[in-house]
Amino acid sequence: MKNNENIYRELSKQFTDQEIVEGYVFPADLEEQEKEAIEAEFRALRLKALKESTEEQRLLSALMRMKLLIQDYLGRSDFEKEFSFAHQLEQYIKLIGRSQKDFAVEIDLHPTKLSRLLNGRDNPNNELVYRLEKHCGNVIPAIYWWKLYAKQLEDEIKTNERLRIIEWEKVKNNLKFRA
Questions:
Q1: How far is it, in rounded angstroms, from Cα 109 to Cα 36?
Q2: Angle CA(88)–CA(94)–CA(95) in degrees, nearest 5?
Q3: How far apart are CA 99 and CA 114, in angstroms?
Q4: What does the alpha-carbon distance between residue 8 and residue 17 come to, in Å, rounded to a whole number?
Q5: Is 144 within 8 Å of 74 (Cβ atoms)?
Q6: CA angle 172–174–166, rounded 5-degree value
Q7: CB 3.0 to 4.6 Å from 114: which of 32, 49, 104, 124, for a disulfide?
């Protein structure tokens, strides 16, 4: 913010406020042809930047996209299967271009355990989410991985009526209160 104020002070020495606004704010009343020309120029610049980006830059960009999608999802209230821990881990492995076997070696996890995680037959633990955080270069924090699982678990607790009934039948002498 302080930097913006310094920039404004420097510009105001040479230009009026009106000139600054006209020079740095896009006008809203562009003609359709002007809008199309600007959009075409922007697309061309974006394509050029994409072509010139390194594999590392593309991977970082994809990881940042994944992080932002997870972050957005975690802010929502409902569980979505495509954001289950297993699905996001599978997406991550595809994104980095590793086989399951190679990835398991890289994070010091038995391949069978990884397979069970990916198929939703096993659940992550603290150690695993720390390893995932380290593996992705700290782009996706351990807490995001854990919250993906926690949100899934919360949904299961809310919706698994069959298990609720089974477990309620095991309780003897439960407390009773008047309504």
A1: 52
A2: 85
A3: 11
A4: 9
A5: yes
A6: 60
A7: 104
What residues contact residue 45 under an 8 Å CB cut-off, 6+ apart? Answer: none
Smallest CA-to-CA distance from 73 within 148, 146, 140, 130 is with 148
Residue 76 phi, psi (nearest 5): -90, 160
Whole-angstrom distance, CA of residue 106 vs CA of residue 135: 8
Return the DSSP state at 83: G
Q: For 47-64, how does the pLDDT look when each residue is reduced to its tens digit (9 = 90+)?
A: 888 788 888 999 999 999
Q: Which residue in 50, 59, 53 sits closest to 96, CA to CA?
A: 59
Among the listed residues 90, 88, 96, the one whose alpha carbon sits nearest the alpha carbon of residue 137: 96
Q: What angle do CA 6, 11, 17 make, to 5 degrees?
A: 110
Task: Tell me 107's DSSP state.
Answer: T
From the list 99, 97, 107, the residue with the least C-alpha distance to 142 is 107
Helix (H) or strand (E) holding 34: helix 32-52
Q: Is 55 helix (H, G, I), strand (E, B) or coil?
A: helix
pTM for the whole thing?
0.72
The rounded distance, in Å, linking the Cα atoms of 155 and 164 is 13
Structure tokens at 177: 């209160």
